[in-house]
Sequence to fold (128 residues):
Amino acid sequence: MELIQAIGRRKAAVARVYVTEGKGNITINDRALGDYFPSKLLQYVVKQPLALFDAESKYDIKANLDGGGYKGQSEALRLAIARALVKIDPENKSPLRAQGFLTRDPREVERKKPGRPKARKRFQFSKR
Fold:
């Protein structure tokens, strides 16, 4: 198996993933998964697509994460890993789709409008 590349996005976070055959090492921005995401919940979110196929120890994953917060980054990484697994074996697509791992969450922060304190909030109305 050669190098497989995939990209995942969530909110402002972008994850670029490079998957090769290996022992199950996940490296994010040259740091181990446990160092980058100390929370066990976020580590679980990242490993969900791999756990679906019992492939945690089959592939080495090198990821570049940029932008957003830790939750958005973990979900972007999950999407990228799921897309890479589909590139490796197209048979993986329907189970991943059924679990919702291939669905890109399109929700983004709405921009602030001029003349308002936030995107939709208005200043308090004063009659006099």
In short: The longest helix spans residues 70-88. The chain has a mean pLDDT of 94. DSSP finds four helices and five strands in the chain.
